[in-house]
Amino acid sequence: MIRVAMVSYWHVHAWDYTHEAQRHPDTSIVAVWDELAERGAANAATLGVPFIADLAELLARDDVDAVIVDAPTVMHHEVMTAAARAGKHIFTEKVLAPTLREAEAIVAAVDRAGVVLTISLPRLYAGYTAAIRGLIADGAFGQLTQVRVRLSHNGALRTERHPDGWLPAHFYDAAATCGGALIDLGCHPMYLTRAFLGLPERVSASYGAVTGRAVEDNAAALLQYADGALGIVEAGFVNPASPFSIELHGTAGSALFGTPDAVLLVNRGAGWQPVALPDDVPGAFDQWVAHIQQGTHATENIAAALDLTALMEAANASAAGGRAVALASLDRWSAEA
Fold this sequence. Notes:
Elements: E1 2-7, H1 14-23, E2 27-33, H2 37-47, H3 55-60, E3 66-69, H4 76-85, E4 89-93, H5 100-113, E5 117-120, H6 127-137, E6 144-152, H7 174-177, H8 187-197, E7 202-208, E8 218-224, E9 230-236, E10 245-250, E11 254-257, E12 264-267, E13 272-275, H9 284-294, H10 299-321, E14 325-326
Parallel strand pairs: 1-2, 1-3, 3-4, 4-5, 6-9
Antiparallel strand pairs: 6-10, 7-8, 7-14, 8-9, 10-11, 11-12, 12-13
C-alpha cells in the first residue's frame, strides 16, 4: 500500500485527486498539510487523518511514502523539491511550475532522489488524442499547417447563484497563481497543441479581463513554427456554452472534434467522415501508482510538463511585454547556477 499525504487543498481539483487516491486499491491517504491551517485541519478531519501543520514534519514521517501536491502554483518549486529531498514520490496538478527554470530544478531534484514524479495532464490520455495522433502518423493531413484547441467555462461570471463566480477567489490572486485562464484551464489546449505540432519557435499571447479580475479571464496564444505552421490556444473563464474543441488543418486534409459533439470527423477531400475513438488509456494518477510499483519513471509525461511550463512562461512574458517570445530565450536551470 502506498501511503499518501495530501499537500494543500488550494487547487479546485484537490478533492478530485483525493477521491482518486481513495478509490485506488493500492493507495491510502494518511495525512494532510496545508498552507492554510484552518482549511487543512478541516479537510483532515473530514478524511479522519492527522493534520500536520509543519511541512518538514510531514515530509519526515516514515508513514508517508508519497504526496499529492495541490499547493499554490508559486509554491510548487519549494514544496516539490523538499518532497523529493525527503524521498517522497510526487503527483501534482499542472502546471509543474511558473517558469522553466523552476520546473527543471524540480525534475533535477526528483532525478537525484530517485522518486517518481507524475503531472496531471489528463487530456493527453483521452481516446480522441490517440485517434488524432494516429491520423497525423498516417499522413491524413499532409503537412500540418494549423492546430486550434479551445477550452473555456464560466467560472468567473457573476450570476445569481454565484455572485462572485464559482471559481474560488484565490484563483484570481496573481501572486499565487502566476496567471489566470491560460495558465490554469489553458494548460489543456496548450499541451494538446504541443502534442500535435511539437514545440514552436515563438509564442505570442494576448489576455483580456472581461470581469475585471487581477488575472486574465479570456486568453489566446499563437504558437509560431519554423515551417510556417501555427498553433492557436484559447481559454476563458467567461463562457457558459463554449464547447471543448479541436481543429487540425493541413495540406491534405482537416479534422474536427467537439464542434460541438464529442465526435471526431476527418475530411481528406471527399467529405467529412467519422473516426472511431479508442478507449482512454489509464490516467496520470494510475500511471503514477504503476511507476512507483514497477520502479519506472514517467519520462514522456515529465517531458510534456516541462514543455508546457516553457510555453506558459513564454505566453505570460508575451502578454506582459506585447511581443513574441522565443522559447530559446527562456532561462534554464543549471546545477552550477
